[in-house]
Structures are given as structure tokens and as C-alpha cells.
Design goal:
Layout: E1 11-12, H1 22-28, H2 38-55, E2 61-64, H3 68-79, E3 85-89, H4 93-104, E4 108-112, H5 116-119, H6 126-134, E5 141-147, E6 149-150, E7 155-156, H7 159-169, E8 174-178, E9 197-201, E10 213-217, H8 219-225, H9 237-244, H10 255-271, H11 273-294, E11 297-298, E12 310-314, H12 321-332, E13 334-335, E14 347-351, H13 358-374, H14 383-393
Parallel strand pairs: 1-13, 3-4, 3-5, 5-8, 8-9
Antiparallel strand pairs: 2-10, 6-7, 9-10, 11-12, 12-14
The structure holds pyridoxal-5'-phosphate.
Keywords: Aminotransferase, Pyridoxal phosphate, Transferase
Family: Belongs to the class-V pyridoxal-phosphate-dependent aminotransferase family.
Cofactor: pyridoxal 5'-phosphate
């Protein structure tokens, strides 16, 4: 319960769902149409073509009426057979959940990673993947599954390096990547990085509500799916690919979310994806400037892997991050992400993905700073002032969106 009657907009600064722009909300409010009629077919063809540009792929992108978890399952169910070994890397909570899913699907996941909570402060170690594949001369491992932007930590792994590691071994395993929280806020290149299946979702960088999710495919993934034996029906690519050729789906799609997706794609493509990504890099740098001025640590310990999507702020020993989040929510109507799994209570997460601007982030940092002070956290200086200076002195050089 809030201390006051909330007015103005709630600050939704969790790392997804992210705030939905009014333009998208308006697009989604249009009347639902016949999903087998000509108007819908034209919309389907248009958005299936446009969505490829966000994934940076020439190949098909499947859209499911499901949250990201559904698209995780789809990626495995379409490419794997019961008992198949999959190599997964423990970057954080979401990598851990995906590994549990693999077990439930009767796969045999091997979960490698750096030890303990500290391991959650680093990214995927491509050399460990390379070493493991080198020790698999029989090619028992059928897929390497990694999370690109680990939403529980704010570490963005180097997917091109994972591809190079796989190629260096000559191993035929598929590369399956979760960029549920990375897409359209962090640099992502499905084709260039040689990813076989990319999994993503709507409620993060795409600025949509939760409810649709994606599998971007490679020709090799499509070929493998023709022989893979895990049971699948709702998730089966073949029928969807067939219907998609005419802009339709084999079952009722999320019509109004697709209106929203079409609008979101127009917004992203009109601005230019690379400009959108530059905005997010800049916001992340401003937020990290604030964390540094507070005298606190960012969860990610590898500067090359700082996430442009979210920043994990580690609390000093003995401070319960969830207590701080509670104060910030109750006093300032601001939602922050909680520490998950091994990071529970140790840190909170500031989302700077999707539809933000400099001042929403300054207000967010203001809520964090005030909340930490109220809780008695010893701050070295003002993160808000530091971030304001950062934003003022570092305009986005490429464009007009500020
Ligand atoms: N993977 C990552 C990296 C995520 O951030 C999330 C959700 O936050 C998921 C998977 C699960 O997606 P969903 O909650 O949409 O099912």
C-alpha cells in the first residue's frame, strides 16, 4: 500500500515489462478483426517482414501468442529429441530456469558456469564452451543454449564469441540464444552471429505488453526441426511457417498485440535500430555514473558486458535490497526489479529499456537515492547530480530523439 494517493504516472522501471508508449496503446485499442480475412493477411505479411529487421535476419521469425517462456519451450521442442544433451551456461536466474525447463522436457542439460554468486557477475565464458565441445568427439551435445542479456544480473554476453568458440571446434551443435530482454535495446544480430534459434519476447525492448514471443530461425534450425522428435503441436514451426506465407497463423493469433507490434516496429524502424541501441547505451552509462557517485557497485563486473537494458545495483553488506525497494515503492510509487535466485536481497535492478528518456531516468535515480537515504544506506555522493551532469554533457551525437 502506498503512503499517499498515487497521482501522475507510476514509474515502471523494472527490466520488463517496460512502459508501453501511448502510440502503441492507441494502436492496440482498435477493434479486433477477422484473423482469416484479407485485412489481417495484409497486416500479417507486413509485420512478419518488418520484424526480421529487428532481429537482423533474412530468415523467418515465428510469433507465438505466449510469454517468453513459451518461446523458450518452442525453441527446444522444435529442434531436440528426448534424451538429447544440451550444453547450457549459468549466467543467472533465467539461464537456471531454462535449464530446469530442459530437464522437464526430457532433455539432458549440462549446466556449466563460474561458481557461486560471483559467477553471476560475469558473462558466458566462450572458452569453457569450446573446451567442453572439444571433449565431445561423438557430438552427443545437440545444442548450446545461452542467455544474451541476463535480466537477473544486467550482464550482456558476447554471442559472437560463443559462435566463434563453437566454430573453432567444428562441432555441429545448434546455437540457441535467449534475447528476451535484449532485443531492441541491446545490439543483436541473428544472422551475422550465426544463431540458429533466437528466443525473444514482447514486453521489454519492443515496448509492448507481455503476451507475444518469438523464435527467429536459421535454415539449419529448420532442417534439424524436420527430424527432431520431441512432441510438439501448438509450438510446431512447420504449420506456422506454412500459414505465415499468406500472413496468417494456424490458430487465433493475438490480434491486438500484433497491432501493437506493427506500431512498435514502425517506431523502431523509423528511428533506426542502431539509433535506438545508442540511446540505451547512453542511458546505461548515465545510470552507472550514478551508481559510482553513490559509491556502490554495479552487479556486472566486466565493463565490456555492461547491459544497456538494466543495471543491477549491489547493496552494501548487511543491507536488504528488498527492504529498500519496498520503501521506494511505498514512498515514491516507483517499481524496481528485485534480486532473483542467488542475488536475492543483495541487489536491486533499474530498468532502462524501451520507452524512457533522460528525465524518467533522473526521476528513477531520484527515487533510488531518496529511498536508500531513508533506509540509512551510507552514500558517498549524489548519483542524481552525477547522472544529470552525464546526460547534459553527453548528448546523443547521432540524432534527434532526445
Ligand atoms: N528469459 C529472460 C532473459 C527473461 O528476462 C525472461 C523474463 O523476464 C524470461 C526468459 C521469461 O519470459 P516470460 O516471463 O515472458 O515468460
Amino acid at each position: 500500500k502506498l503512503d499517499f494517493h498515487p497521482s501522475g504516472r507510476h514509474f515502471l522501471q523494472i527490466p520488463g515489462p517496460s512502459p508501453v508508449p501511448d502510440r502503441i496503446l492507441r494502436a492496440m485499442s482498435l477493434p479486433t478483426i477477422d484473423h482469416r480475412g484479407p485485412e489481417f493477411g495484409a497486416l500479417g505479411l507486413e509485420l512478419l517482414a518488418k520484424v526480421k529487421k529487428v532481429f537482423k535476419t533474412e530468415h523467418p521469425v515465428i510469433i507465438y501468442p505466449a510469454s517468453g517462456t513459451g518461446a523458450w519451450e518452442a525453441a527446444l521442442a522444435n529442434t531436440m529429441s528426448p534424451g538429447d544433451q544440451v550444453l547450457m551456461f549459468e549466467t543467472g536466474h533465467f539461464a537456471t530456469l531454462w535449464q530446469k525447463m530442459a530437464l522437464r522436457l526430457s532433455l539432458v542439460p549440462e549446466f556449466i558456469g563460474l561458481p557461486g554468486y560471483e559467477g553471476w557477475r560475469q558473462g558466458v565464458q566462450a572458452d569453457m564452451i569450446q573446451e567442453r565441445l572439444n571433449n565431445d568427439p561423438e557430438h552427443a551435445i545437440k545444442a548450446v543454449c545461452v542467455v544474451h542479456n541476463e535480466t537477473s544480473t544486467g550482464v550482456t554476453s558476447d554471442i559472437a564469441a560463443v559462435r566463434r568458440a563453437i566454430d573453432a571446434t567444428g562441432h555441429p551443435a545448434l546455437l540457441i540464444v535467449d534475447t528476451i530482454s535484449g532485443l531492441a535495446s541491446a545490439d543483436y544480430r541473428h544472422d551475422e552471429w550465426g544463431v540458429d534459434v533466437t528466443v525473444s519476447g514482447s514486453q521489454k525492448g519492443l515496448m509492448l505488453p507481455p503476451g507475444i514471443s518469438f523464435n527467429a530461425l536459421s535454415p539449419k534450425a529448420i532442417e534439424v526441426s524436420q527430424h527432431a522428435k520431441l512432441p510438439r503441436s501448438f509450438w510446431a514451426w512447420d504449420e506456422i511457417l506454412e500459414a505465415n506465407q499468406r500472413g496468417y497463423w494456424p490458430y487465433t493469433p493475438s490480434t491486438n498485440l500484433l497491432y501493437g507490434l506493427n506500431e512498435a516496429l514502425d517506431m523502431l524502424l523509423d528511428e533506426g535500430i542502431d539509433h535506438v541501441l545508442a540511446r540505451h547505451q547512453r542511458w546505461a552509462a548515465g545510470v552507472r555514473t550514478a551508481v559510482e557517485a553513490w559509491g556502490l557497485e554495479v552487479q556486472c563486473q566486466d565493463p565490456a558486458l555492461y547491459s544497456p537494458v538494466l543495471t543491477g545495483v549491489v547493496m552494501p553488506e548487511g543491507v536488504d535490497a528488498d527492504e529498500i525497494r519496498k520503501i521506494i515503492y511505498e514512498r515514491f510509487d516507483l517499481s524496481l526489479g528485485m534480486g532473483l535466485g542467488k542475488a536475492k536481497g543483495k541487489m536491486f535492478r533499474i530498468g532502462h529499456l524501451g520507452d524512457c528518456n533522460d528525465l524518467t531516468l533522473i526521476a528513477t535515480l531520484g527515487g533510488c537515492e531518496a529511498g536508500m537515504k531513508l533506509a540509512g544506506v551510507n552514500l558517498q555522493g549524489s548519483g542524481v547530480t552525477a547522472a544529470l551532469d552525464y546526460f547534459a554533457n553527453n548528448p546523443l551525437s547521432t540524432g534527434t530523439s532526445e
